[in-house]
TrEMBL record:
Molecular function per GO: hydrolase activity
Organism classification: Bacteria, Pseudomonadati, Pseudomonadota, Alphaproteobacteria, Hyphomicrobiales
One Pfam match: Amidohydro_2
SUPFAM superfamilies: Metallo-dependent hydrolases
Protein name: L-fuconolactonase
Keywords, alphabetical: Hydrolase
EC numbers for this chain: 3.1.1.-
Domain Amidohydrolase-related residues, every copy: 7-283
Family classification: Belongs to the metallo-dependent hydrolases superfamily.
Amino acid sequence: MPHGSIVDTHLHLWDPKRLRYGWLDGNDVLDRPYLLDDYNAATKGLDIQAMVFLQCEVEPSQYQLEADWVADLARHDPRIKGMVTWAPLEKGRAVLPELQNLARHPILRGIRRIIQFEPDLDFCLRPDFIEGVRTLAELGLSFDICIDHRHMANVLKFAAQVPNVPMILDHIGKPAIKDGVMEPWASQMRELAALPHVSCKISGVATEADHANWSEDELKRYIDAAIDAFGFDRIMFGGDWPVAVQAIDYQRWVGLLDRILASASPAEQKKFWRDNAVRFYRLENVL
C-alpha cells in the first residue's frame, strides 16, 4: 500500500432518505445510504488525510441542499477539505448569483455539471454553457469534466475555449474498456493534455470494464495511457467511492494503483497520492 498520506479527490456521499437521486433507482448495489461511517469502514488502515466531495447528481432542485448537507458533514469530519457541487452553468453569466450562494461554504472548490448524460453531444459547445464555465474564474473555481469517450472530440474544443478555468478530467474520460477500444481515446487524451490548464483523475476505471470479469492488465493499459499523456505533474488519485464498488472495492483499487506505480519515483508517487490534489483543489491552507 502507498507510503504516506492520501488525498482522495473523488468522494461521493448520499442518503436517499434525505435527498432524491433518481439515477439510483433499481441499482441493487448503490440505492442505499453511503455515509462517512461506511467510507471509514471501506478505507480502514489507509492514511486518508483529506477528501474532496463530488456532487452526486441529486435532483437539480435540491443541489443547494446537497451542498449545505455536505458542508455540515465537513464540520463533523474535517478531512472533507473540498467540495465540488452541481450548478446550472448552461444559464451563462446568469448563474453567478447561484455560484455566489454556493461560495458561502468555505470548502467550495469547483463545479461539476455532468456532460455525459446530455443527449446532445454538442451540449458542451453551446455558447451559454461555455459562458457559464467562464464565470467560474470570477470566483476562483475549477471545473470537473465528467464525460465518456464519445464526448472527447467536443471536450477538446470546449476546454480550449476556457483557458482561464482550471479543469480536471474525471475517470480518465471513461474509455471503452469493456470493448477493448483504445483509439481514438488515447490520441485524444494526448491532445487534451496539451492544454496546460487540464489535469486528469485516475479514478472510476474498473467501472468502465466488465464489472465481474476485468483483469488488472486490462485496466493497466488505460491507466498507463492516461499517465503517459498527462505526466506525473497533472494526475491524481480518486477513489470514486461508492460508485466504484460495483466493480472493485476501495482497498483493491488502491493496491492495484500502488502496483502500477511501483516503478515511479517516491516524488512522483507523492505527487499522485497527495501533492497534485492539494495544488489543484487549493488545499494548501487547510491541511
